[in-house]
Specification:
The complex is a heterodimer.
Chain A lengths: L3 E8 L10 E8 L6 H11 L19 E4 L2 E4 L12 E5 L5 E4 L2 E3 H11 L21 H10 L7 H4 L2 H5 L5 H13 L7 H8 L13 H5 L6 H13 L3
Parallel strand pairs in A: 1-5
Antiparallel strand pairs in A: 1-2, 3-4, 3-5, 6-7
Helix pairs in contact in A: 3-6, 6-9
Chain B lengths: L1 H8 L10 H27 L6 H11 L10 H22 L7 H14 L2 H29 L6 H8 L5 H26 L7 H36 L11 H8 L7
Helix pairs in contact in B: 2-4, 2-8, 4-6, 6-8, 7-9, 8-9
The chains are: A alpha+beta, B mainly alpha.
């Protein structure tokens, strides 16, 4: 039997001088398998065309629809409304990112900046020949390395991080995970000293307070806790 | 000159980052580990009063060097307390770097914690709060122990609790120490990847269970110990200030033998 659910969404346009932040309440009939993405689309189509939120793939791949769902960062497309027994769902934009409007934040530019900051690409002195196969890796190491590449840059680890909220320049778990990914990859010729130059400070690995909300909320279940500890051990051991 | 340039630029003349943040992070953990483990041992020594006054007296004298000195010396305890005090202050100084340092940081963290209701995020707040409280309470206790090591004993410690009305202070200190230490040791394991095993998620769950078990155990032991000292202090209130004489020593004096047991 279907029920009526209540969605309370924060609305605010920081670009507007007259916009005042408030929660708008929408009531709608829940349907089978309804995700937050479906509910928000229905709201925008039938109740409030002005409501802003982000989405692209609707399948937990693009990482665009992260938002605070009853206080916890989640992907709207992978959150089922039936999982909220009281039928009341409060939505807010993810903190730590630039607020564009309502539930829409700019994760893209932040992730781009992070990628440049941690130099998120293979560094090698060999000129790659794309007509040839890459040098092989041990299968186990390849699995562990490419596992970390499953990150979809949704920003949930960043929004979940209390350290990041207190210290805006903190690189976040996504950045530390990225460094760990290249530190493990034998194709990358950078040394630990090189990685230290990227994250060896209180805005990097040594700023992490091990709150592990990144790991607990990551929609891709990446081993962030382990990889952050791995990088910390590596970089502390440098002389 | 190079210090001046590094201080100004935040990197060395060669353009390299300082290794100091790594050292500070390591030292924060090392001092925390020492203090956490020290507190476990400390609690066992203090709780010796639950067995008997004589046993607690013997433990006290042991730390004053009774094993190798004819006349135990309380200043030996003062030296140990001084070393612990230095480590304690170092740890406080290092831990301070992580605390929220302005209203906005505190507000952002509080709001986030309240919204998310994430266990480890909330535990950190308790750790930060109890750490801040211990800046004062831990320092006061350590200073007292350092300067009045000779008063440690079954009656001296009990009089301090009851006649000097220090039990409310020690109740708060006990809570602060056990919560801060328990959470801190758990976080150390997470931070450095200790006991991770095959599945870090499973091992963290187990670590947290162990953390709570340890906290409950030491809190229980601490409360019982505090109650024991208050009880002894109450019974001894009319003779507050008098030092304890072990049973064996009294018996031998009754026999007319003046040799200390």
């Amino acid at each position: 039997m279907s029920r009526t659910i209540t969605i309370r969404a924060m609305k605010y346009n920081p670009q507007s001088k007259i916009s005042k932040a408030h929660f708008a309440e929408y009531k709608l009939e829940e349907t089978d398998g309804m995700t937050l993405f479906i509910a928000l689309t229905k709201i925008r189509e039938t109740m409030d065309a002005d409501l802003s939120f982000d989405f692209v793939c609707r399948a937990g791949i693009c990482g665009s629809c992260g938002m605070m769902v009853n206080g916890t960062p989640r992907l709207a497309c992978r959150t089922l409304t039936k999982d909220f027994p009281d039928g009341v769902i409060q939505l807010m934009p993810m903190p730590a990112f630039k607020l564009l409007k309502d539930l829409s934040v700019d994760t893209g530019n932040w992730m781009n900046g992070m990628s440049k900051r941690v130099e998120s690409w293979i560094h090698t002195n060999h000129k790659p020949d794309i007509s040839k196969l890459e040098a092989p890796m041990e299968p186990k190491l390849a699995d562990e390395t490419f596992e970390l590449d499953r990150c979809i840059e949704c920003g949930i680890c960043v929004a979940a991080c209390g350290t990041k909220l207190m210290r805006p320049n903190f690189v976040g778990a996504v950045g530390l995970n990225r460094v760990a990914r290249f530190a493990m990859d034998p194709h990358d010729e950078r040394t630990d000293e090189d990685f230290y130059e990227l994250i060896g400070d209180d805005d990097g690995i040594f700023g992490c307070m091990s709150l592990v909300a990144c790991e607990d909320n990551c929609p891709k279940h990446l081993p962030l806790q382990s990889k952050i500890a791995y990088m910390r051990r590596k970089l502390v051991a440098l002389r | 000159m190079s210090d001046l340039i590094e201080g100004f630029l935040g990197k060395s003349i060669e353009g390299k980052k300082s290794r100091m943040p790594a050292k500070l992070d390591y030292l924060q953990s090392a001092t925390g580990l020492f203090l956490g483990l020290f507190m476990w041992g400390h609690m066992f020594f203090v709780s010796s009063i639950l067995i008997s006054k004589d046993f607690m007296y013997a433990v006290t004298k042991f730390f004053e060097g009774s094993a190798f000195l004819t006349n135990p010396q309380p200043w030996l305890v003062s030296i140990v307390v001084f070393v612990v005090f230095v480590i304690f202050i170092s740890h406080a100084l290092l831990g301070m770097r992580k605390l929220p340092i302005n209203f906005r940081q505190w507000q952002a963290y509080r709001t986030h914690m309240g919204m998310m209701k994430h266990d480890d995020t909330s535990l950190w707040y308790i750790q930060a709060f109890t750490g801040f409280a211990m800046f004062f309470m831990g320092s006061a206790h350590l200073f007292m122990m350092m300067t009045k090591a000779h008063e440690i004993g079954p009656f001296g410690s009990a009089d301090r609790m009851y006649s000097d009305f220090m039990w409310p202070f020690y109740l708060l200190l006990l809570l602060a120490v056990e919560f801060h230490g328990g959470i801190g040791l758990y976080r150390l394991c997470v931070k450095w990847g200790w006991f991770e095993g095959e599945d870090a998620k499973v091992s963290r769950k187990n670590l947290k269970k162990a953390k709570w078990a340890v906290t409950v155990f030491f809190l229980g032991l601490g409360l019982l110990t505090l109650a024991a000292y208050v009880k002894i202090g109450y019974a001894h209130k009319d003779h507050a200030g008098e030092r304890y004489k072990p049973t064996a020593q009294i018996e031998m004096q009754y026999d007319g033998n003046k040799v200390r047991a």
